[in-house]
Amino acid sequence: MKRTFSSPKPSLLIPMPSSQRQRPKILWIDGVGSYAMCDANEVSIGQAFPGNQVDLAIRADISRKACIIRRKGEDHLIQPFQTTSLDGQLLERPAILKSGCTLQIGDRVQLRYTRPTLLSGTARLELVSNHRWQPVLNSVILLGDSCVIGPQSDAHIVCLPPRGTDWNGRFIWFRQSDSWICKGVECPGLVVGQQPVSAPFKLETGLRIQSDVASWTLTEP
Predict the structure, then answer these.
(1) What is the pLDDT of residue 21?
(2) What is the pLDDT of residues 149-208, one digit of tens each?
(3) What is the C-alpha to C-alpha distance for residues 129 and 60, in angstroms, rounded to an integer?
(4) Contact partners, residue 115, CB within 8 Å, separation at least 6
(5) Model pTM score
(6) Domain-located, residue 108
(7) Which pLDDT does position 18 carry in this prediction?
(8) Which of 94, 115, 132, 157 could pair covalently with 79 via S-S, beta carbons 3.0-4.6 A apart?
(9) Residues 163 and 89 in one domain
(10) Which of 110, 142, 174 is the last residue of a domain?
(11) Distances in Å between the alpha carbon of 188 and those of 22, 165, 183, 211, 212?
């Protein structure tokens, strides 16, 4: 007999009206990959096809809206809308996700949820089955109040330095009201747009961030 997870009341996961939702922005890191940066409290996952207005689309035989993942404090909760299991156990109610757990949506789609450090509520969501995000992504970042990009294993996005470069710094994103601020730690040659910087700066879509160790751009979906 399959066990089911206990969970908070379903009312915690009532979807926000579509008019209040913002599609995740895409972070393009040169030589590393692309990442959906989800800073909303709630993201929807569903099948990739023209006109489907989910936040995260997967090229797979799943429902139009397969599930919702919602940030609640330092945790993330999943509310399934089709057959979904968590670490092999069928979900019948919303459940809290734990770092390292595996979600299976339908018969084949598998996702791994990871929190690289418990000091941040930010988590990474990766497809581990033979499917693809639409658009193509390396992974999805479910943002809490901070995000770390760097070569360390506990970074939310692991960004190795150019060959022959010894880099142990990091880029740190943190929320400030309705904006995101970025601070470069040991990031030599840091240029934002055309301006060299050393202080924290506000992140804006389309702004080119360059340094001797990593370069990236945050874009609209």
Answers:
(1) 56
(2) 999 999 999 998 888 778 899 999 999 988 999 999 999 999 999 899 999 999 999 999
(3) 10
(4) 99, 121, 122, 123, 124
(5) 0.88
(6) yes
(7) 42
(8) 94
(9) no
(10) 142
(11) 33, 11, 12, 6, 6
Q: Tell the burial category of 124 from Cβ atoms under 10 Å away from its Cβ (0-12, 13-18, 19+).
A: buried
Q: Residue 164: its pLDDT value, please?
A: 74
CA-nearest of 159, 98, 147, 152 to 120 is 147
Mean pLDDT, all residues of the chain: 89
Q: Which domain holds residue 64?
A: 40-142
Whether residue 160 contacts residue 171, with contact meaning beta carbons closer than 8 Å, is answered with no
Residues 84 and 54 in one domain: yes
**CATH number of the domain that 170 lies in?**
2.60.200.20
Amino acid identity at 104: Q
Render the chain in DSSP notation, one character per residue: ---------GGGGPPPPGGG--PPEEEEETTTEEEEEE-SSEEEEEE--TT---SEEEESS--TT-EEEEEETTEEEEEESS-EEETTEE-SS-EE--TTEEEEETTTEEEEEE-S-TTS--EEEEE-SS-EEES--SEEEE--SEEEEESSTTSSEE-PPPTT-----EEEEEEETTEEEEEEES-TT-EETTEE--S-EE--TT-EEE-SS--EEEE--
Backbone angles phi, psi at 43, to 5 degrees: -130, 140
Structure confidence at residue 1 (pLDDT) = 42
Structure token pair of residue 187: 């990031």
Report angle CA 201, 206, 207 to the nearest 5 degrees: 30
Does 72 map to a domain?
Answer: yes
Please check whether residue 91 is in contact with residue 85, taking contact to mean a CB–CB distance below 8 angstroms: yes
